[in-house]
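Input record (one chain):
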Amino acid sequence: MLYGIGLGPGDPELLTLKAVRILKESIKVFVPGEMAAELIRPYVTEEPEILDFPMIYDEEKLKEIWKANAENVAEYARKGDVAFCLIGDPNFFSTFTHMKKVLADVAPDVEVDTVPGISSITSCAARMGVAVETSFEVHDGVSDINYFIHLKARKPQEIIARFEKEGYKEFIFAERLFSDREVICKGKENIPEEGNYFSIVYGKK
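The corresponding structure, as predicted from the sequence alone:
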């Protein structure tokens, strides 16, 4: 099993309890850089392996590097639990997102799971001393928006119908995440008419 572990914004005390437990139990830990390695050293028994992801423009060379890194990770993940740790969250603008795609090609037999980290979105509100109490937008400077996350999705099918008109085609409904009452429904046809305060709809074009 390969775990993608979010380390949060940079404070070693802001790692989740689950992240720390998996780090301690993993037979091997990988990181994409020294910053991540420094954060996890208090919680691992062996030195983490830093994988090289160079900032180059040669696509063929990049493919070779990603493939080699994925094969390296897969070799250990077939033997036991392995962690790939990174600053922030593994599913938001993350090296791990691309690692999963490459791994699915070179090692489809390896199971993958993610452990969320405290994101920069919530971290910045805490450090700035600001409160977000109404709808808000997170933007990376690109005008073409391809995803949405709608919180408090009390009428999920109505939300879906509205976003379908904007070109969104893939939808996931979630409720009470990470609790013993968690619900996750993929595909418009499987999503209920009614949600509640703890419901979320995710959409992708």
